[in-house]
Design a protein that fits this description.
With 161 residues, this protein is an alpha+beta fold. It has one domain (3-126). It is built from three helices and seven strands; from the N terminus they run βαβαβββββα. The chain is globular, with a radius of gyration of 16 Å.
Length: 161
Amino acid sequence: MSDIISVLTYKSVETILADGGTQSWALDRMRAARCDYVVICRNANNPAVEGPEEHGSAFLVGKVKDVVPAVDEGRWKILISEYARVDWKEEWSGRNPVAYWKDTDYTDDDGQVRDFKALSFQPLEKLTVPERQGLTIADAKAGLAATFAVPLESIEITIRA
């Protein structure tokens, strides 16, 4: 049996893959890091919605690699090592945008438990940042905090011109 974390987001597949995972979540880091998979569901009610999927449908499943500080202070980013595109209708229930489940909680329209191991996972390739965009202070702080396993607020960056 696998542990699953499920999130409800307005972000697109492209944004999630470019970020290396999904963020900025208020969650229990230790519990989330023990999960095998993250099931990402569409929040189509957000005015900034980036994807075309129906509200509450799962559109992406990721293998959880780690949970690290997100760009937003006090929030977490769920890093993924591999991903699979899915089209599972009406997978979201509840009001909280983060939920924990067992894989046996996920069933198809016929009531059969979904086989996460049978999904066609693709490796998440590191995307390069275009030169004109560069690295933001927030991204640098989040990366350093994760690398050195310290709180985001412990990182200070000074730029001298």
